[in-house]
User: Fold these one by one.
Assistant:
Number 1:
Amino acid sequence: MSALGVVFGFELRRTVTKPSFWIRTLAVPALIAAVIVLSYFSSKVSSDTTEQLKTSKFSVQVLDESRLVNPAVLAAVGARRAASKPAGVAAVQHGEVDAFIYYPQDLAGQPAEVYAADAGLVDNAKYQAMASSLVQASLSAKLGSPAEVKLLQAGVSTKLTTYKDGAETKGFGRVVAPGLFLVLFYAVIVLLGNQMLTSTTEEKENRVVEMILTSVSATHLIWGKIWALIVLGVIQVLAILVPVLVAYFGFRSQLKLPAFDLTQVSLAPGPILAGLALFVGGFMVFTAMLVAIGSAVPTAKEAGGYFGAAIIAMFIPFYALGAVATSPHQLIVQVLSFFPLSAPITLMLRNAVGNVSAAELLAGIAIIFVTGFVLMGVAVRTFRYGSLEYARKLGLKEIFTRRV
Amino acid sequence: MPHSPIIEIRDYQMKFGPTTVIADLSFEVHEGETFAFLGSNGSGKTTTIRTLLGIYEPTAGELLVRGRRYSPKMSAMLGYLPEERGLYKKESVLDTMLYFGRLKRMTRPAAERWSRDYLERVGLADKTNVALDKLSGGQQQKIQLGVTIMNDPQLMILDEPTKGFDPVNRRLLMEILEEHQARGATVVLVTHQMEEVERLCDRVILLKDGRRRLYGTVEEIRASHGVPVIDVEFNGSFPKTSRHFEVKQLGKRSAELTLAQGAAPQLVLEELVGYAKLSLTSFQLRQSSLDDIFVALYDEPGRRAQEVAA
């Protein structure tokens, strides 16, 4: 096996055999699943409670000055008519009745007033639920159709079909495939960024680099580490995606997950290939930058300080999301599109929303790859020399002028 | 072939920016010999070794191993123990040894067999799967040594090998060195321990300020740069001045006498015997040691300054 293969195998094996890797990897989907389950149960309990409250029985008096509430509906719930507002309130105060509901004349402009015996913070909601449902039931009866009431309450849903050059376009569906690369890029950076940064500081902190460099070239060592990081990234993404896909396709109805029409997803090769190129180039730029930082500073702790700046430089386009999505010709968007560190995410965003030309994409991808190769050379050079500087940070001037 | 060179360094220069670290250095290390690389801290020893092993690029000159510039592809023949050394602390003993063994082009089974045999030898067979940071400092040194000599290298370069080693591991290192010498390995020792050099090494080079100052066999250097030294033990006190010798008091009753130019030991003995305030109990003539030569060489500017002032 080549030295590169030995490094790759060592780096991969020693990471995947550590429980901390799996804890880190599975913590994200586990937390997301926990949040989904919690919010599902919370919403279900809340909805059940609301239903129970709506149907709970209590004595009630009503005074309807709006004349919107149907007497038949009032009779159905056993509500009695109050003589006046003060009488209704007094009846509640003296415990003669559980609740008194007062509907003012202008119900659209003024709230219904509810006076009731205190049943606790949660249970008190049943009085307000009763006040609302009496009006809704009355209006339903007036309209004569539950569908009309539903339309009135929820509004009308719409479905948009658009055409480009005479052919139907996929609308939001075209964003999905190229947008996936952006999500993947974000996930990989969040999950692996720190590991990229510390992959070379470890050798330096443990004083192992000099022995290593007599057995494997700096280039092979770094590429072995990077390949291992790529495979670790794939493992992490699969560890997150597989449970999600199994849950969606295997247990969608049981889990009451929303249905997505996958036929609406556009698989046009152009944006997908551009997304892939931007993902690979961006990954290269980011990895090379972090490896170079890790090689230039003496400890992982010190490298951490630079990590934040590197992240901001890469993810700054998200702060200009509105402009990137809607005004691609603005100067700031153009700068972000071609500045090597911000170009990957800016162009991935623009590629997803479809506001980037082929010429811009080609120029941007070329800039990213050239930067990636240059930075990779700098990273190797910094590693060869900087990794022997155990106690101090390496300056840029030294990286480029000192012979190694 | 006792004189075929395994290492050849010719007209080697190294500059870091405007600073010249090594100037026109040339020497050879012969196949099968034990060679000492001497010099004070900052004299350029480690830089030379790093350049020889391809970690640094020389400013000028040729540094060859077996007639070629060293590349990691030649790692199977090399056992290198750098001055700055360590291991992957969070990995197990066996995994670490296997990794270095594989990088030295050993097959996995061969590396595993070698590692287990070595761990058995140094009494760490029960630590095979223990993480290195769970071992004591002395145990970690044993692993470090094992990683260095994996694959029975033909060329061993040991930079300050006993630095930080406890006495047990120092003895283990010496045993291992002698074994490898016996099987014909070439050993380059970068060290300050002159007793080790005199005991183990065939030839020596000494650097000062990046320049070669001494080069040859231990005997040649002692013959050419050594001076007669007299070790004396005594009661009483020495005369305040003498034209035959200089006194370096070592203890209350012992001293080292360096002979003045042209002075014979017999004259010294006669002078001391005739001095009433001194009674000699021992008088031994010897040639100065490598340690004396090393110290004298590094003390030259100070001595010259004193001479000028006088």
Number 2:
Amino acid sequence: MKQSPNDMIKVASLAKRFNGFTAVDQISFEVSASEIFGFLGPNGAGKTTAIMMLTTLLKASGGWAKVCGFDISSEMRQIRKTIGVVFQDHTSDEWLTGMEYLQLHAGIYGVDENRIEDILKLFDLERWGDHVIKEYSSGMRRRLEIARGLIHHPRVLFLDEPTLGLDVQTRRKIWSYIKDLNENEGLTVFLTTHYLEEADELCDRIAIIDHGKIVAIGTPEELKSIVKSDHPTLDEVFLNYTGREMRDHVSNSRNHRPPRGFWR
Amino acid sequence: MYLTAEIIALPGDSGDKRAEAAESWLDNLRAIRAIARREVIRFLRAKSRIVGSVAMPLIWFCAFGLGLGSAFGIRYGEIGYAEFLAPGIIAMTVLFASTFSGMSIIVDKEFGILKELLVAPISRTSLVFGKVFGGMATSLIRAILITILFSMTLKISMSIPEYLGILAIICLISFGFGALAIAIATLMESMEGFGLIVELVVMPIFFLSGAFFPIERLPEWLSMVVALNPLTYGVDGLRLIMFGTGSFSMLHDFGMLMFFDAVMVILAAYLFGRGDTT
């Protein structure tokens, strides 16, 4: 279990099986400090499962991983203190105001309330603090949730499909927030996406994941150089690795209803 | 993919438990307060819930206490049926309000809100306490409103210590049943299922608690059931304070309620945090 001091995340042969179905199949990679690392893959490739394991919400079936030097299967409390997580679906309580939502999490993480003002300002939401989240647009809600994920100054921010379903303007705005945080505060970011331009624009390094396996890993440029083309795009790289077939995968909607045994 | 599937199925905060115990006590208290506060905000924000939560008990009170009571001229010792029923209706309000804390966990699960709480560095037990105390606070708001209405319409005059005694019983009822609701919620997967269980569990608890009828002259099997029902002691305690008449002593009522609370919170914390040890 060697870990260089610069590795914020180190993953070795991590696997997750659900009743005979392998969602994540022995993936290994490292993410260095202050890097933006992306998991790029089609729907159902195992991206969210991987993020759930790294954020201590799902138990791994095999392999190991360390986040900020802590083991995901035994040092969960320490990991939870040092990471911020923004989930794919909106998870903010729409009956609270933006301010109350952040106060809830400030209370949970033991953060000074002054931080709330700062973080609202950082995400250009200071005028919306007293509005109920119900009144927010999807993009505002996503910004608020990212703000929530950062409230306790995490060292690594996990973003699961951060711009899913947002319009182009909002998407670009969110990219700029993430880039600023990365450049100004050295925040390490681990994100998943199935938008190629998002991976291309944001990520220092990308892992292409398909059927639970990492099929390629490298900088966007490295990945593009693999394809023989005058103006290589990530699109071509992606299709090169993941095939051109459309995917019928197990529906994501199963996520919303916890199946039997959820609590055990 | 079955992502949320095993979310709680994981060790919460196992190995490092003892090392951080002292420091985390304060952290947990703060987290409990934050979680409880959210429940109260949500309750106060939904105006219809406030109206509904007061209207329901009043309808029961009018239909049975005033309607049935005066139609048949029922009396219980010195007091009329409306007076007899009033403590039962207060207990009912608390019972219904505290089962809501179980409901709110299922709602949080369905909307993914629970994931935010689970990924935070707080113990599962703190989460349970946050929910229970949140339910207790909303129960108090509702029950105080009802109690004030009753003491005005039934012209009950009570001293400050007597009001405090009523608040104490409300808290004890709410704590125990809130924890029971959470224990049930941990075993349930959907709101529909939870609703069904609540109807199957909560209604009998209410009906067989001595809220509706004196428990002295019941058939033996029924009085056994009533004696096993913790709400019986809540209703009895309230009646003792409000009208000075009841089936047990105050000490007995408080003792039983506290015993029930202790058992329930241990059960809820065990079921909710079960993932921690496996």
